[in-house]
């Protein structure tokens, strides 16, 4: 099947938002920080869920190596470099141990290993390091959405398929919530939300599928818990142009006729990507001249947005995007 044309979608004007300009511009930096925390925490807590007697081998080990290889290539900003170094170190450790990995060997690899601006402590006690999220599940969804945008910098002809397969592999092997894992794999393998109709190179389609799944999970969990069904994400306040019938999704519809594809894609790009990250990758790779300063806008934006969010949260409760109930 031919890939959906992404150029016309990605060049549209960004959707209007009810957020302040400062907060809106800072959101990618906040999401990047949360994604980095999620990576560190998952590596510290989830790697040996499928291990036996403290040893990882076979398919779970192969998936770990593929996951780190992928993050080392795709993760935005400066975070890809420490992950790539960890990936190289992991390959060496596994090769020297007959294609096995012990808990002790991996803990040694992770010692004092942070990720860009996030310190190693976040892998053990992450709560103090979340910026927009309030828990790991939110951070993990943020990581997936971030990768769906960062993967556009690759030249792979199967970038969309690779993204979704890596996400599936992570959930199957390294996500600790068995209930959540079962539901996600059932949806993925059962081609829910037309996943199996996506072309291998359809990154926009893959990004939309993750967005649909995120909403589907949030609404399902709220219903199962007997809570009030939240409005789908993004809210009309955050993206005035995204929805044709937001209430339809809230009531169980999953039709593509209920939302505006181009507006959702523009929203995801605005929320989870930044031109500065591409620039920073070149800087870290040595592609910039020695007298050019490293971009600092992302750091400033992160600090400003963190302060703004604290002010907002002091006056209202968390919305569904910041909660960490089950697999939402």
UniProtKB/TrEMBL annotation:
<keyword id="KW-0560">Oxidoreductase</keyword>
<dbReference type="GO" id="GO:0003756">
    <property type="term" value="F:protein disulfide isomerase activity"/>
</dbReference>
<feature type="domain" description="ERV/ALR sulfhydryl oxidase">
    <location>
        <begin position="127"/>
        <end position="243"/>
    </location>
</feature>
<dbReference type="InterPro" id="IPR017905">
    <property type="entry name" value="ERV/ALR_sulphydryl_oxidase"/>
</dbReference>
<dbReference type="GO" id="GO:0000139">
    <property type="term" value="C:Golgi membrane"/>
</dbReference>
<dbReference type="GO" id="GO:0006457">
    <property type="term" value="P:protein folding"/>
</dbReference>
<dbReference type="InterPro" id="IPR039798">
    <property type="entry name" value="Sulfhydryl_oxidase"/>
</dbReference>
<dbReference type="Pfam" id="PF04777">
    <property type="entry name" value="Evr1_Alr"/>
</dbReference>
<dbReference type="InterPro" id="IPR036774">
    <property type="entry name" value="ERV/ALR_sulphydryl_oxid_sf"/>
</dbReference>
<dbReference type="GO" id="GO:0016971">
    <property type="term" value="F:flavin-dependent sulfhydryl oxidase activity"/>
</dbReference>
<dbReference type="InterPro" id="IPR042568">
    <property type="entry name" value="QSOX_FAD-bd_sf"/>
</dbReference>
<keyword id="KW-0274">FAD</keyword>
<keyword id="KW-1015">Disulfide bond</keyword>
<protein>
    <recommendedName>
        <fullName>Sulfhydryl oxidase</fullName>
        <ecNumber>1.8.3.2</ecNumber>
    </recommendedName>
</protein>
<keyword id="KW-0285">Flavoprotein</keyword>
<dbReference type="GO" id="GO:0005615">
    <property type="term" value="C:extracellular space"/>
</dbReference>
<keyword id="KW-0732">Signal</keyword>
């Amino acid at each position: 099947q031919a890939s959906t044309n992404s150029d016309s979608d990605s060049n549209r004007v960004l959707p209007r938002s009810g957020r302040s300009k400062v907060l809106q511009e800072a959101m990618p930096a906040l999401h990047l920080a949360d994604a980095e925390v999620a990576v560190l925490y998952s590596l510290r807590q989830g790697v040996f869920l499928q291990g036996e007697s403290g040893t990882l081998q076979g398919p779970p080990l192969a998936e770990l190596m593929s996951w780190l290889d992928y993050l080392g290539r795709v993760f935005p900003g400066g975070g890809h470099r420490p992950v790539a170094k960890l990936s190289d170190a992991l390959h060496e450790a596994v090769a020297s141990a007959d294609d096995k990995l012990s808990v002790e060997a991996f803990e040694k690899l992770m010692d004092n290993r942070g990720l860009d601006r996030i310190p190693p402590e976040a892998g053990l006690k992450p709560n103090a390091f979340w910026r927009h999220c309030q828990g790991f599940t939110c951070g993990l969804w943020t990581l997936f959405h971030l990768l769906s945008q960062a993967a556009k910098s690759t030249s792979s002809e199967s970038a969309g398929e690779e993204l979704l397969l890596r996400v599936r592999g992570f959930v199957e092997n390294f996500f600790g919530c068995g209930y959540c894992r079962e539901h996600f794999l059932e949806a993925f393998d059962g081609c829910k939300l037309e996943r199996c109709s996506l072309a291998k190179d359809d990154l926009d389609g893959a990004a939309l599928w993750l967005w649909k799944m995120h909403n589907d999970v949030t609404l399902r969990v709220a219903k199962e818990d007997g809570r009030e069904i939240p409005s789908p994400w993004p809210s009309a306040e955050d993206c005035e142009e995204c929805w044709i019938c937001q209430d339809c999704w809230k009531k169980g519809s999953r039709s593509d006729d209920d939302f505006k594809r181009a507006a959702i894609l523009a929203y995801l790009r605005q929320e989870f990507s930044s031109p500065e990250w591409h620039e920073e990758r070149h800087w870290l790779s040595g592609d910039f001249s020695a007298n050019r300063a490293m971009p600092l806008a992302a750091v400033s934006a992160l600090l400003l947005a963190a302060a703004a969010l604290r002010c907002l949260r002091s006056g209202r409760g968390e919305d569904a995007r910041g909660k960490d109930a089950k697999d939402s």
